[in-house]
Amino acid sequence: VYRYYTQEAVVSTQSTGVPKWTDIVKTATFKELPPKDNNWFYIRTAALLRRVYLKQGVGCGALRKIYGGRINRGAAPSHHKKASASVIRHALKGLEEMKLIAKHPDGGRMITSAGRRDADRIAFQVMSSSMSTE
Description:
134 residues, mainly alpha, two-stranded antiparallel sheet, 4 strands, 9% strand
């Protein structure tokens, strides 16, 4: 539910738009096909905003590990592979252009006051909507 509200917020505020290659790119080398959902880039951007909110100073390399997964190697044992750096990097750049995150002085990214305000507002909307449905 949080992902939906955050996705809507990112879609409504993102001025740069989606890169042209999002319909053909895979999210990681271990994936066989690109995502089927047309809004997958917005969902990934919203998820990255939440990750940066939860852990300040997280960089592209750490996010690659988080969004990575298991590669199927047939009869051989599976191994962990990292996610695509290009997808994460472009999403982070879009969030920086929207002034929701900024570069951390020690490396990585941190959330700005505007980003924290928007994330808190969305979390409150999610919490109030889940309370009203019960």
